[in-house]
């Protein structure tokens, strides 16, 4: 009963945070990017939680149970990706005010690239969000002994209440709580207690295979695949881009993302070590994905077990809410707003779009037992089709609209082709897709002329979006130094 009360208290806190966030979301900028007011702690917490979802937490422990320390490879790829966003992209994105991937391509290459990239980004964010909802349902099913459908609905309803109420403000406040819950649950409770119960590292080394403590035990090929898919994919992840502009300054945006990458790498190592300890304690698990809950129930007393389960919920809920608001922001900013103008720039329109995206995600979660295949397709196509054009848009002035369109089409086609030839989960689709995109993008760009008004756009010269309550910059200020908020 105590564990159930801890979970219910956690869900109640999420709803209360939604109410508080609703009071602060007065404009569409408040709703989409928290008014660009977050300081270092809140920003780093929010950036970390959107990275560390169910795959990083439950999946990270599962990989640790199977491969030992090298099981952190997946989370490490994510950590490097989020740090790279801060180091390479934060300055250009923060100064330009661009916070959606389709907006970046649309400003540089025009409407056709915006439409194509919007479809890919929405599909990716939606399907990964569906996976998180299914993960939430699986956790709540164990704790409350309800059907998976009921459990998924409870988790989804909680996410919708706080997300629709206050948008990014509510999501950020819940992210801070979730960050603290995950930090305490993983680093302070489950990791030390699981390693202690397993007899310490010395005993674990004696009982486990030698490659469990090798950084490459999972296989060089698998590590390379994770790097291609998650490092490059995360650099153009909509949720991550949107979080960048919640920072109150360019400095916070850059170094907060780098700090988040460091935290996530440590989180991945902790998950892998917990998984290795669970392998020593529970060597005969039928399903490695059960390692997280099984080792928690073995080493934790009543009450603390509920807190660690809440950490798994926090991982899924924070990622799900970030992904769903990312999909709804792309819809309102890059699809509906160009059609409807100012009418679709309101907080009300943003709330309606977010709720609609949430309903679609819930329907998919009911219809599918697993969305691994759909998520894999979406992630592969995202990286294969969009990474090269996005980097070109920001860093290569010679790139053209025709090159961007050719790159997206070539990358998508090659990725899908190799999924059919090599298999859905093979390493080749994303690698060959990115190569095809690069060849088409560079070749066609060199063979065509940049389009006036789009192809020559320099992200450094775009005016910074004003924070809520600040006057818009005068036209003459474009191209000037960063605003005082980023000094």
Automatic annotation (TrEMBL):
Question: Domain of life of the organism in this record?
Answer: Bacteria
- Establish whether keyword Transmembrane helix is in the entry: yes
The cross-references to Gene3D superfamilies, in alphabetical order and at most eight, read: Sodium/glucose cotransporter
Composition bias, Low complexity: 464-487
Does Acyltransferase count among this protein's keywords?
no
User: What InterPro entries does the record tag this protein with?
Assistant: Na/Glc_symporter_sf, Na/solute_symporter, Na/solute_symporter_CS, Sodium:Solute_Symporter
Q: What range does the record give for the signal peptide?
A: none
Transmembrane region positions? Answer: 6-22, 43-65, 71-94, 115-144, 150-169, 176-195, 215-236, 257-278, 298-331, 352-368, 374-396, 403-424, 430-448
Compartment(s) of residence: Membrane
**Entry membrane topology:** Multi-pass membrane protein
Chain residue ranges for the region called Disordered: 454-487
Going by the UniProt record, its keywords in alphabetical order are: Cell membrane, Membrane, Transmembrane, Transmembrane helix, Transport
One Pfam annotation reads: SSF
Q: What is stated as this protein's family in its record? A: Belongs to the sodium:solute symporter (SSF) (TC 2.A.21) family.
- PANTHER family attached to this UniProt entry: SODIUM-SOLUTE SYMPORTER-RELATED, SODIUM/PROLINE SYMPORTER-RELATED
Put simply, this protein is called Sodium:solute symporter
What is the organism field in this record? Answer: Streptomyces johnsoniae
Q: What is the lineage of its organism?
A: Bacteria, Bacillati, Actinomycetota, Actinomycetes, Kitasatosporales
């Amino acid at each position: 009963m105590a564990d159930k009360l801890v979970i219910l208290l956690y869900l109640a806190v999420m709803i209360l945070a939604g109410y508080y966030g609703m009071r602060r979301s007065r404009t569409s900028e408040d709703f989409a990017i928290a008014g660009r007011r977050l300081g270092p702690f809140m920003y780093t917490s929010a950036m970390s939680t959107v990275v560390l979802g169910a795959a990083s937490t439950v999946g990270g422990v599962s990989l640790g149970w199977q491969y030992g320390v090298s099981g952190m490879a997946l989370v490490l790829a994510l950590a490097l990706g989020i740090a790279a966003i801060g180091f390479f992209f934060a300055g250009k994105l923060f100064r330009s005010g661009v916070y959606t991937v389709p907006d970046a391509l649309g400003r540089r290459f025009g409407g056709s690239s915006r439409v194509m990239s919007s479809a890919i980004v929405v599909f990716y964010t939606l399907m990964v969000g569906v996976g998180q909802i299914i993960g939430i349902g699986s956790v709540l099913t164990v704790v409350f002994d309800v059907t998976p459908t009921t459990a998924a609905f409870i988790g989804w309803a909680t996410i919708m209440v706080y997300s629709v109420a206050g948008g990014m403000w509510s999501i950020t406040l819940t992210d801070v709580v979730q960050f603290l819950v995950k930090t305490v649950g993983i680093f302070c409770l489950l990791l030390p207690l699981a390693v202690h119960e397993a007899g310490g590292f010395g005993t674990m080394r004696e009982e486990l295979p030698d490659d469990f403590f090798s950084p490459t035990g999972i296989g060089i090929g698998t590590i390379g695949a994770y790097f291609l898919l998650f490092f490059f994919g995360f650099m153009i992840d909509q949720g991550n881009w949107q979080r960048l502009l919640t920072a109150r300054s360019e400095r916070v945006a850059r170094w907060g993302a780098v700090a988040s990458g460091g935290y996530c790498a440590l989180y991945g190592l902790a998950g892998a070590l917990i998984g290795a300890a669970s392998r020593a304690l529970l060597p005969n698990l039928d399903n490695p994905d059960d390692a997280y809950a099984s080792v928690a129930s073995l080493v934790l007393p009543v009450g603390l077990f509920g807190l660690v389960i809440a950490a798994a919920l926090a991982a899924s809920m924070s990622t799900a809410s970030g992904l769903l608001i990312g999909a709804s922001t792309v819809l309102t900013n890059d699809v509906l707003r160009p059609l409807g103008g100012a009418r679709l720039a309101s907080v009300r329109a943003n709330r309606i779009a977010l709720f609609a995206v949430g309903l679609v995600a819930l329907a998919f979660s009911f219809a599918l037992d697993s969305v691994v295949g759909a998520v894999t397709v979406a992630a592969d196509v995202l990286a294969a089709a969009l990474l090269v054009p996005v980097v070109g848009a920001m860093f290569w002035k010679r790139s053209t609209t025709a090159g961007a369109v050719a790159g997206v089409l070539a990358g998508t086609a090659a990725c899908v082709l190799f999924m059919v030839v090599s298999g859905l989960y093979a390493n080749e689709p994303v690698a060959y897709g990115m190569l095809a995109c690069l060849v088409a993008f560079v070749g066609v760009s060199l063979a065509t002329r940049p389009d006036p008004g789009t192809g020559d756009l320099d992200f450094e010269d775009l005016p910074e979006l004003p924070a809520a309550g600040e006057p818009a910059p005068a036209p003459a200020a474009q191209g000037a130094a960063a605003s005082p908020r980023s000094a």
